[in-house]
Structures are given as C-alpha cells and as structure tokens.
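ERR on first pass: missing label on line 2. Operator R.T. fixed the label and resubmitted. Corrected input:
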Amino acid sequence: MARVRSTNPVGVTPREVAPDSPIYARWLRAAVGDTALAHDLITGANSTTAIDHSGAPLGCPLRMPLAAQAINRDISATSDGDYYILAVPVFIRGGETDTYSLRMSVTPGGSDDMTLEVRDSTFAILSVPLRGEVEEPPVRGDGTLIPINRVFVVKWNFTIYTAGLYYIFVRRRCTDTNDRFFSWSLDNARPSAGSTNGLFVDGSTLVGSPYDAPSTYSVANNVEFYDEEVTAYTTGLSAYVTSRLNRKLNALWEYVTGSRIPGNNAYKGTSTVNNNRSTWTNEALLEFPMTIAALGASASITGAKNPGASDLQGWIRYPVAHSATAASFCGLVMFMPNFRNLTSTSALKCTVLFQASTGDSMADWRFDVDVSGATGTPSAEVAPTQLGTSRYWTATVTGIPFTAGTSNLVDVRIRHFTGGGAIKHTQMLGVCLYFDP
Amino acid sequence: MAITRIVSSEPLTNAEATSWAPAVSRRLATSLAGRPRYLLELLRGDGAGFDGDVGTPLNPQGQLGVDRSGPPWGDAHLHPMWIYEHAVDANIAGQVAIASLTAVGQVATVFAEFFNRPHYVAPKVPYSRAYFRGRVTCVGGGSCTVQVRVYSGEVSRFASVATTGTGTIGDSVTFADVVPGLNSVRIEFECTALTGSSARIDRASLNQIARRSH
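pass 2 clean. output:
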C-alpha cells in the first residue's frame, strides 16, 4: 500500500465540489494528499523540510520584539569623547532581514548628537552612521512648545540585509551633566495589524462538540491514507475514509492554529506545537530571539584606572580583578519557551560584547552561562574573539541548559583562565540571548 | 483573480461523516477538499502555490499564515517582554539594583516600556497579559518582606515575598493587561517588613507565559 501524499499542493476546483456534482475519487485523493502534505510540513516527517517561520513557503516570520530594558543610569560626561552609551550584540533570524526600530529614552540633554552604527563581526560598519531623530516635545494650544523637563525619545530605523549576528553601537558626543539613560527597546518596524476574520479563538462560548478529532495530534496516532482508499469506487463513498479524514483535518487544524475546531466549545485534541519536543524529532528547531541586555557604556580605558577619567561612571561595568573564579556580570530572570532543553542539544546561545584597552589581548578570559535549576551545571566555557582589529571582543556561549516552560534565573559569567597577573582592563557592554539551532 | 481551488475553514459534523450519511457535495467535498488548502496557506504563509487569490485572512501583523502570536494564529511561545538586568558579584563593579528599600513603607517605582506583538485581541489570549517575575535579596542578615504591585491603569495586582536570603517574587496573578504595540507598565515595590539593613530588588522581568490562553 502506498501512502497518499501530494508532492506539491494539488487542490480541487470549485466545479468539482459544486452542489449536485458527481463525487469523484480524484478530489478525495487530492484532499487526502494535501492533508498528508500539511502534516509533513509541520512535523518534518517523511524527509520534508519543516516549517520554521523563516518566510514563505516555510511559514510566516515571527517578527519578535528583540529587546526592551529599563536602565535608569547617569550618562554624564565631563570631557568630550567617543562614548558608546549603548553597545550590544543583536541576532537577526533567518528570513527576517528587515527594517528595525531602535528607541532610547533619555533626558533632554542626553539626547544631544546621538549616532547609530551597525557593525558586523569584523567591526566593519554596515551603513552610513545614522543620527537619531528626536521626538518633538509636546505643543501647547497656542502652538508654542511646552518647556522641556521630560523624557526624550531618540529613534532610528535601520535595515539589516543578511541574517545573523550584528553589533549595535550608539555614540554620543557631548559634554553634559545630570543626563540619564532611562530605557531602550529594539523592535521590528512591522506594518499595521491585519484582519482576523474567518478564524475562531478561545474565550467565546459555543454549545456542543459535534466535531471529533484524535485526542492528540502526534506521529503515533496520526491517521494515514493509502492508495486503495482513494481509488474509484464501485460501492459508494466510504464513510470510513471521510470520517477519518475529517478527524485528521480537525486535529491538524487545532495543531496549526492553536484554537479549537469552530463550533466546538473545547479542544478535542490536546497537543500544541512544541518545536523540539523529543518525540517529534523532525519538527523544526526555531531560531528565536529571547532578549538583549545592555550592561554599560564603552568609554576610553586609560592608564591603571578602569575606566579612565570620571566620565560615564554611572554606566560602566567591569571586572575588578583577575579572578579564576567565575563572576556573574549579567543577571536575568525570565520565562523560557517549551524548546528542547537537554544540555548537549540545547539551541540556546548567549553572545557577549565587551571591550579591552587598545592593544590588550583578552584571550585569557573565559565566559559561560549558569541557569539556576536547569541541570545544576553551567554551560561549557568559551574563549573570546576580537572584532576585526578593534578594541571590541565577543564570545558566544552555546548549548546552554535551561528549564523549558517556566521562569529561569540566568547568570552570564566571566573568569580569568589562569588568575592573577597584571590587570588588563575590560568593560562589559552587552549580551544577547537567543535560540540558534 | 478568482479562487481556482476550493478553500474552506468549515469542519464536518460527526453526523455528516458517518456511514449512510448523505454525501452532500457542498458540505462533504468543500470541507474535505477545501480545508487542506486552508491549512497549507496558514502553514506556508503564502497562497500555497495555487493560482488566483489566497483564501485565508491576514494575520495580526498583516501577513499571511500563522505567526505564533496566539490562537487562532498558532500557539504562542513563552518569552520575556521586558527586563531589568542585575547581578551581584564582588569581582564586578558597576552593577545597580532596581532599588534598595531601607525602611518599612518605603516604595520604589519602575516603568516598563516595551512593544507587545500584534495579536488577536480577545479576553485571555496569551499576549493580553505581561506576568511579573523578580528576585529579592535581604541584605545584612535578618528578614524582609517585599510587595510588588503591577499596574494596569489604576488597577494593581500584587504579590509578596518574605525571605531571609534571596527569594523570587511574582505569581499567577501578578500581571498587567497589555495591548498590541507600545506599552508602559508601572511597577511598584514596597518594603512591608524588615529586620536586616535593606531589601534589595535585584533582577525583574515581564513575560508572556501562555501557549493558548490564560
């Protein structure tokens, strides 16, 4: 018996299913084949490239917000200089090369002359540095501006053309005191919302459950159809076939849309798409951004003092010793998705961006990520690499164990490989957490 | 252009698909032949390769296909929507907690500003709520109790944690009602009991925590 499955969507013309038209085996075969194709696309079964939401035909992009963080730090500077007050890694999903919107909330003086630079792993700048656009202050009824004593929002829209890791730097050139950096966010500059007609959702109450589906949708209980069931009939249409096909479509509907069958007051099945659960190993592992945390500004490192001078003292983070014991420099609490979380196969990664004194090597530092309650052991350590020949360095920790579907405490840590020795100064700038299978 | 291949979102009732049921083409064929196309369009995020118009509506972000923003556009994933980062280590300088409350009755406030994904707006859908999670440390020995209040306009939902060391705060009722697009949520912390030197609010986040509904 050969399993019926369309190589590409076949469909049925409206004429073939019009009222009083003869019922042909060919449309039933097409329906069965297309249903099997839908099943294979979502599960990755039968050597099918699974839907991974990287854009049609592999699914609608997710367009997740990338970052939203409260900072509330002093960014005053008493001497002019190249100060990156925001410097973070950014992970762009496959298929989501798009225009992104960066917003920073600062005090009025803090908004002076801010410029965005998007750089790659060689520290090459990807586009002309963009000067921030300052949101206009509110206007009185008579047309005059309301005196400024409020938060300013500086905005940029920029486009990324290739998926992967990038580094965002926002440079501020001014001499000001009593300036603050309140918060920032990075989001896909998406179009406006569309309609929602034609589908049903939880929350409404309907009476009766006349539409059956298999109790769960899984490989184990998935109903299949074979050649013999969809050939020309001599004894009429088989209810065995139509009822099973209907149930399979109902289950697949719940699985794909996450909502119950229209007309039912509850799910007939129980499954949701987990993307990575162990029993459906072919289901697509998703690239998925979790969050980005800015840790501090990048100021010049001079002499024995770290950082140099007294600028940006409220927004600088750095190790104070060459300790061989791992020290947490970034602490987060957050919910994790229901993704595969085994230590060796976790797709969770963390990229760290930091800077060194010009000319110093950071090769003796190591980074790891410790997620409390996951397995009791942190991820494997990694050594950093330099961004081109710049003073900026990066390290990407992979295979980070975590607990799926619940709140996790995440600590990103640094230690000196050997401990001791002459201090080499470094400033921690930002981390990006993301799933990248 | 017209629809060249039948597309449908209508299921068949059990009665319509049983033995000896009349094979009504309009129902039987439309549902069984039309729903696979509907599902293929939702999965692929395009017209599924068919000529002519697409048969499925646009999703909340104005695109075709399920975008995992909650039912009916696929079950949602869990993730943070907003964070306040903080870690404590003697070998790291420059870390600042959200607040250190040194007296009973002292209140600290933080505003969480973030974008929420476009989603189908209905009661209890996943992206309609942002759940708070945080960590509190009682500094200088002794014990402390901290209450967190998460505001949706003038409505606040609160939770408390009493701890002698480090404790997590936030529960199944500590959430803000949020909308698609830009949101600003006020979060207050109040020290309600203290025998140590201070109650420090360490890290915090607002999260999307549901797959299908709250």
